[in-house]
UniProtKB/TrEMBL annotation:
This is histidine kinase. Its main location: membrane. One of its GO terms (biological process) is monoatomic ion transmembrane transport. It is found in: Cell membrane; Membrane. The keyword ATP-binding applies. GO terms for cellular component: cytoplasm; plasma membrane. It is a multi-pass membrane protein. PROSITE patterns: HIS_KIN. It comes from Mycetocola reblochoni REB411. PANTHER family: SENSOR PROTEIN KDPD. The chain crosses the membrane at residues 380-400, 412-445, 457-476. It comes from the Bacteria. Gene3D superfamilies: 1.10.287.130, Backbone structure of the membrane domain of e. Coli histidine kinase receptor kdpd, Histidine kinase-like ATPase, C-terminal domain, HUPs, P-loop containing nucleotide triphosphate hydrolases. It catalyses: ATP + protein L-histidine = ADP + protein N-phospho-L-histidine.
Length: 831
C-alpha cells in the first residue's frame, strides 16, 4: 500500500487574494526542483495573469459531464490517478462536482489522490470551512452551501494563509483584476465591503492560530513535554472572590498586553463540597471585568488550591501566574505553615509567579456573627426538647440500669445533645450537655444520688463527656448556620443579579425588583407606592398599619409586610432601595424624553421650514409677481414675443411653487403615516425610461446597464419614478461636464437593486446621514433647486415600499445611491 500523500492548503479570507496564483507559483518552483507536478484543475475565472501562470506546467485534460443539456468541465480523477504524479495542483477544494461524477465534492477527490500517495496543493476560502459557515453568513449575509469538513482540514500537513490587506483587495477588485467590470460595483457594495473583508481576514488568522495552537499541544503531548513553552504570553490570574480581584485582573491585563498575542485567563478554585467559595456578587463583577479586558473566565473544582491552580496553569500552557499577597496575619501563618502563594511558587516550575500586594493583604479574618442562624421559635423548641427529653431519657435508662450500662447511658445522653443541637442550636445544646452531665453523675455514677465522684477516672470521663458534647453541639450548630448562610448568600446573589439586569433592561424593572425583594426576604407582601398610587405590588395585600415603610424618594415609599429585617438584611435592603430610586429616575427621564422629543422635533422642523420658505418661495413669487406686473403695466402695447416671455416666466414660477407645495404635502403625509402606496410588480426599466424623459437626459448624459431576468420589484411605479427623478437630478447636477451618470440594476437574493452612480465630489462620511434630513443642502447655496426635500422624500417613499435607500462612495470618487427593493422571487446570487 503506497505511503499517504501530503496535503497543503492555501487559505484565503476572500476571493481574489491570490490563492490560485500562489499555488501555480509554487508549482513552478517545484518543477524547478525537478519534481513531477501536474495541474489537476485550475479555475482562472478569466484572469489573464492567472492563466499566464499555467504556462509550462503540465495539465491533465478535464473530463466533460453532461447535465440537463449543459456540458460541464470537471477534474478527471481517473486520469490524474493514472498519471500518478508526485504533486497535483487542485484548485477550489470546496467545489461541488457536477451530478454524475464519482464523488460529490472535490475534497473527496483530493482524499483519493492522497490515499494513492500523491501530494496535493489546493486552495480554500475561509467561508467554506464547515465550522465557520454560520459565522461567515452572519458577517456577509451570504449563505455558503459548499463547505469542507474541519476533520479533513486538520489532516493537512500544511495550512498557509494567503494574506492581503482589505483595502488592497478592494483596489485590486476596482482595477478589474478579480471580477469583470459589470460585477465590480455590486461586489464592492456587498460581499467586498471593507468591514466584511476586515472581519473575514481576522477570522482566517484566528482560525489558523487556533489550529497551530492545537498542533503545538498535540506535539507536546506526543513527546511527553510538560514544561511550559512560551509560544505566546498566557497570564493566569487567580481569583478568590475577594475585593482584591479587580487589582489582580488589571495587573494581569497589563502584563498580557506587553507582548503581541498575549492572553488573559482568570480562574477561581472552588472546593468539591461547594462550601468554600468567594462572594458570588463579587465574582460576577470580576467575571464581567474579565470579559471587558478580552480575557476568559474559568471555574475549577479542587480541594488543594495550590495544586489545582498550578495544574490548570500548565493545562493552558500559561507563562505567568498572578496571585494576591496572603491575607493571613503573622500569627496565623506561624501556626498553619506556608500559604497558597508560597506553595504555588514552590510548585510552579517554569511558570513565573507574581505576588501582588493589595489593600487586604495581611489583614485578619473575622468570624461571621453567630446570631440569627436560627429563629427564636427554634431556640425555644430546643430548650423544650432539653427539658422534656432529659427526664424522659433518664426514666427510660433507669428501667434498664445495670453495672455495665454506663457506656450506653453516656452515648444515649450524647445522642440527646446532638438532637437538641439540630433542633435549637448551640445554647440549648450546651444546656442539655451540662444538665445531662449532672444527671449522669447524680443517678448513674457511684456513689449514687450525690454530686461527689470517688473514682478519678469517672471524673475525667464526665469532664470529657461535657467537653465532647459541647464540641458536637458547636459543630452541629455551625453546620446549620453555614447551610443557612449559603442559602442566604445564594438568594442575595440572585437578587443582586436581578437588580442589575432589571435596571439595565429597563423593562418592568420596578415589578421585577419588587418580586425579587419579596422572595429574597421571604415576606408575605411588598409594594411600591407613589403618593396614593401603587406602582408595583407582589404577594398578599397589605393590611393597613401592619407594614414597615421605607422612603425611596420624597413621594415614593417601599412598604414591607412581615417581621423586621435583621441587620445583614438591612444592608441588602439598602442596595434594593438605591436601585429602586435609580429605576424610578430612569423611568421619569424616559417619560420626560418622550414628552420633549416630539416638541423638540417639531421646533426643529418649524425652524428649518421657515428658513427654507424665506429663501425658496421668494424667487418664484417675485418672478411671478414681476411677470404679472409687467403684463398689467404694458397693456396692449406689449409686443407678442415679450408677452409670451412674461407668460412663460409666470407659468414656470407658478409650476415651481406648485412643486414645492406638493413636496411639503408629501412630507406631512409621510410623517403622519397616511401616504397611500400601491404594491405592484414593477420592471425597473419601465420607471427609469420615463424618469430620463422627464429630465430630458439622453445617452450622453446617462449610461444604462439593466439586467434582464424574471425579477420584478414590489413597488409603486409612480413613487419609484419620483425617487429616480430626484436621484438622477442630483447625480447629473454634480457630475463633471462630459462624464455621464451610470444607472444599473441587479438582483441579490430576494432584493432588487437600482444603483445611480456619479463621479462628482461625493459626500464626507460624517455627512452621509444628514443628506436625508428635510431642508438640507449640505453647503449648496443655490436656492433655485427646491426646499432640500428631495432626498428626504426619496428615502421616505422607498421605505414606504419596504425598501432601503443607501448612499455609498463610488470607487475612484463620487457618490452611489442604492435603491434596494423586495422582489417577487427568492433566488440567491453570490458575488
Amino acid at each position: 500500500m503506497p505511503k499517504r500523500g501530503q496535503l497543503r492548503v492555501l487559505l484565503g479570507a476572500a476571493p481574489g487574494v491570490g490563492k490560485t496564483f500562489t499555488m501555480l507559483e509554487e508549482g513552478r518552483r517545484l518543477i524547478g526542483e525537478e519534481k513531477d507536478v501536474v495541474i489537476g484543475i485550475v479555475e482562472t475565472h478569466g484572469r489573464a495573469a492567472t492563466a499566464a501562470m499555467t504556462a509550462g506546467i503540465p495539465a491533465v485534460p478535464r473530463t466533460l459531464v453532461e447535465h440537463r443539456g449543459v456540458t460541464l468541465e470537471e477534474m478527471d480523477l481517473a486520469a490524474v490517478l493514472g498519471r500518478a504524479p508526485q504533486i497535483a495542483l487542485v484548485d477550489e477544494l470546496a467545489h461541488t462536482n457536477a451530478p454524475g461524477s464519482k464523488n460529490e465534492k472535490r475534497w473527496q477527490d483530493v482524499e483519493e489522490l492522497l490515499a494513492a500517495g500523491i501530494d496535493v496543493v489546493s486552495t480554500l476560502n475561509i467561508q467554506h470551512i464547515e465550522s465557520l459557515n454560520d459565522v461567515v453568513e452572519q458577517i456577509t449575509g451570504v449563505p455558503q452551501r459548499e463547505t469542507v469538513p474541519d476533520s479533513f482540514l486538520r489532516g493537512a500537513e500544511q495550512i498557509e494563509v494567503v494574506d492581503l490587506a482589505p483595502q488592497a483587495l478592494r483596489d485590486r477588485l476596482s482595477g478589474g483584476f478579480v471580477y469583470p467590470a459589470e460585477r465590480i460595483d455590486a461586489a464592492l457594495s456587498n460581499y467586498f465591503r471593507l468591514g466584511n473583508l476586515t472581519a473575514l481576514r481576522e477570522l482566517a488568522l484566528i482560525w489558523l492560530a487556533d489550529e497551530v495552537d492545537q498542533a503545538l499541544k498535540g506535539y507536546r503531548k506526543d513527546h511527553g513535554i510538560d514544561r511550559t513553552w512560551e509560544a505566546r504570553e498566557r497570564v493566569v490570574v487567580a481569583l478568590t472572590g475577594g475585593p482584591e480581584g479587580e487589582t489582580l485582573l488589571r495587573r494581569g491585563a497589563r502584563i498580557a498586553a506587553r507582548s503581541a498575542g498575549g492572553e488573559l485567563i482568570a480562574v477561581h478554585i472552588t472546593s468539591q463540597d461547594g462550601l468554600r467559595t468567594g462572594n458570588p456578587a463579587t465574582l460576577a463583577e470580576q467575571r464581567a471585568l474579565v470579559e471587558k479586558l478580552n480575557g476568559t473566565y474559568h471555574q475549577v473544582i479542587g480541594d488543594d488550591v495550590p495544586t489545582a491552580l498550578v495544574e490548570f496553569a500548565r493545562s493552558v500552557n500559561a507563562t505567568q501566574l498572578v496571585l494576591g499577597a496572603s491575607r493571613r496575619g503573622r500569627v496565623t501563618a506561624a501556626f498553619t505553615g506556608p500559604g497558597i502563594g508560597a506553595t504555588v511558587v514552590r510548585e510552579s516550575g517554569d511558570i513565573d509567579v507574581h505576588m501582588v500586594n493589595h489593600a487586604a493583604a495581611g489583614s485578619r479574618f473575622t468570624l461571621p456573627p453567630l446570631t440569627g442562624a436560627l429563629t427564636r421559635k427554634r431556640r425555644i423548641l430546643g430548650f423544650v426538647v432539653a427539658f422534656l427529653g432529659g427526664p424522659a431519657l433518664t426514666t427510660l435508662l433507669s428501667l434498664f440500669r445495670s453495672e455495665d450500662s454506663i457506656t450506653t447511658d453516656v452515648l444515649s445522653y450524647q445522642l440527646l445533645v446532638v438532637v437538641v443541637a439540630l433542633v435549637g442550636g448551640i445554647w440549648p445544646a450546651l444546656f442539655a450537655a451540662v444538665l445531662s452531665g449532672i444527671t449522669l453523675d447524680f443517678l448513674f455514677i457511684e456513689p449514687l444520688y450525690t454530686i461527689h465522684i470517688h473514682q478519678p477516672h469517672h471524673l475525667l470521663s464526665l469532664v470529657l463527656y461535657v467537653v465532647i458534647a459541647s464540641l458536637v453541639s458547636f459543630i452541629v450548630d455551625r453546620a446549620a448556620r453555614t447551610t443557612r448562610a449559603a442559602r442566604r448568600s445564594a438568594a442575595e446573589s440572585e437578587l443582586i443579579q436581578t437588580i442589575a439586569g432589571s435596571v439595565l433592561r429597563g423593562d418592568n424593572a420596578l415589578q421585577a425588583l419588587i418580586d425579587r425583594t419579596r422572595e429574597a426576604f421571604q415576606l408575605p407582601g411588598v409594594r411600591l407606592v407613589k403618593a396614593e398610587d401603587v406602582l408595583a405590588t407582589s404577594g398578599e395585600p397589605l393590611p393597613d398599619n401592619q407594614h414597615t415603610s421605607i422612603r425611596i424618594t420624597e413621594d415614593t415609599t417601599l412598604e414591607l409586610c412581615g417581621p423586621d429585617l435583621a441587620a445583614s438584611e438591612q444592608r441588602l435592603l439598602a442596595v434594593v432601595t438605591a436601585q429602586l430610586a435609580a429605576a424610578l429616575d430612569h423611568q421619569d427621564l424616559e417619560q420626560t424624553a418622550k414628552q420633549i422629543e416630539p416638541i423638540a422635533a417639531s421646533d426643529r422642523v418649524r425652524g428649518a421650514l421657515l428658513t427654507a420658505l424665506s429663501h425658496d418661495l421668494r424667487r418664484p413669487l417675485a418672478a411671478a409677481a414681476a411677470a404679472v406686473g409687467g403684463l398689467k403695466a404694458a397693456g396692449p402695447t406689449l409686443a407678442r414675443s415679450d408677452k409670451q416671455e412674461l407668460l412663460d416666466t409666470a407659468d414656470e414660477s407658478l409650476a415651481a411653487l406648485a412643486a414645492l407645495v406638493t413636496d411639503l404635502l408629501d412630507v406631512s403625509r409621510l410623517q403622519a403615516g397616511v401616504l397611500t402606496i400601491a404594491d405592484i410588480p414593477t420592471d425597473p426599466a419601465e420607471t427609469i425610461a420615463p424618469a430620463l424623459d422627464e429630465l430630458h437626459l439622453g445617452p450622453t448624459d446617462v449610461t444604462l446597464a439593466l439586467s434582464h431576468g424574471d425579477a420584478l420589484a414590489h413597488a409603486d411605479p409612480v413613487l419609484l419614478q419620483r425617487v429616480l427623478v430626484n436621484l438622477l437630478t442630483n447625480a447629473h447636477r454634480y457630475s463633471p461636464a462630459g462624464v455621464p451618470v451610470h444607472v444599473s440594476t441587479s438582483t441579490f437574493g430576494d432584493r432588487l437593486e437600482i444603483r445611480i452612480i456619479d463621479r462628482g465630489p461625493g459626500i464626507p462620511p460624517e455627512k452621509l446621514d444628514d443628506i436625508f434630513l428635510p431642508f438640507q443642502r449640505l453647503g449648496d447655496t443655490d436656492n433655485t433647486t427646491g426646499l432640500g426635500l428631495g432626498l428626504a422624500l426619496s428615502r421616505g417613499f422607498v421605505e414606504a415600499m419596504h425598501g432601503t435607500l443607501t448612499p455609498e462612495d463610488t470607487p475612484g470618487g463620487g457618490l452611489t445611491m442604492v435603491i434596494s427593493l423586495p422582489t417577487t422571487h427568492t433566488s440567491q446570487e453570490q458575488p
